Amino acid sequence: MSIINELLDPIPLPDMVQVEQSFDVPIVQDVAKEVQRVIQKRDVLQRIKHGDRIAIAVGSRGVAELPVLTRETVSAIKNAGGAPFIVPAMGSHGGATGDGQKEVLAELGVTEDSIGAPIVASMDVVKVGEIHDGMSIYTDKNAYEADHIIVINRIKPHTAFRGEVESGLTKMVTIGLGKQRGAEAAHILGFGHMAEHVPEMARIVCQNAPVLFGLGTIENAYDEVAKIVAIPAARFADEEPELLLEAKDMMPKLFIDPIDVLIVDEIGKDISGDGMDPNITGRFGTPYAEGGANAIKVAVLRLTYKTSGNANGIGLADVTTRAVFEQTKLEKGYANALTSTVCEVVKFPMFMESEALAVKAAIKTCHNPNFDQARVVRIKNTLDIKEIQVSKSLIPEVEKHSQLRVLSNPEPIALQV
Fold first, then answer.
1. DSSP per position, 234-303
2. Total-model pTM
3. What is the pLDDT of residues 405-415, one digit of tens each?
4. Whether the predicted pLDDT of 134 surpasses 90
5. Which residue stretches of 120-214 are H helix?
């Protein structure tokens, strides 16, 4: 027996119960119909002339109903006489290549066949200005040369900074459409300047590129579309801050808090830009954001299939498995870190030979001397926290919480050994 096994063998693994978390949430029942309604209500297509080429910027993040949002926007433009096409707006994602970004869109369900418009994917950019400290601002060349640009994105809290606008339409205009060069330029001074720079950069892009409007969504705690808005480009700065506050109010969370050990079954770029959303886990790669759970130790067990070896965010865990280590393609995460300037997210934590040993290591180091009473919470990933597992010791706490419900009897925790 190795010294690691000797140290961890006495650590008990908890019995777990399945628990349902309930959130009071609004939902858009007919997303397609609502897209058409908000576009018509704001009259955002009035400037389109027959034959105008319209670039629709679509990103790489997990946006609920993205194919429907894109398809209906394409349809509305065609009805207005325009000729729509899609441009990937995802900074350096997809390996920072046009083909790679087109593949990312396909994985999200956005294909030429599904949305009824061509996809024009290139990393070519045009410099459209600079801000006061000399930082250059870029935008996608194909979009810049179109008659109009429309951006589609979810409005939500960012994973690395706090400001009046965070992730959403404004950031899509600056960093998403900026491709690799734009994303790199925007991050060069670090996330401590993002709250100031993103709105300023967006203002300059909108002055010098034909940005027409943004189609924005807010999602509820179950990652369903709760609200859809169409905002003219000139109104981004006025309207997006209030929508961000709404989005924060609807964010899901873990009602068990504090947590001794948070087990995350899987992380990946298809789950969050940070692999696991810090707004859920409480583990941020920068000091410029806060929130989420108060977890003493975080154990990550697997990578998602769709992340294709990109373990960006693994550095925010305390312990993981050899399987994660061997599946990790370091260069993919390093490319993200070099662009974002955040290196902490790709540092590799201690890894164990099995999932069971990884969880035992987290329990042993969680600072609760009563290992059999450790407050353990397990989630599939940070997008899926409607049902979670909690250790048997937490049952009394669950039963007292109005938004938690025990769904099963205690059973031994299921882990690969």
1. GGHHHHHHHHHHHHHHH----SS-SEEEEEEEEE-TTT-TTSS-HHHH---SSTT---S--EEEEEEEEE
2. 0.88
3. 999 999 999 99
4. no
5. 141-144, 169-171, 179-187, 194-208
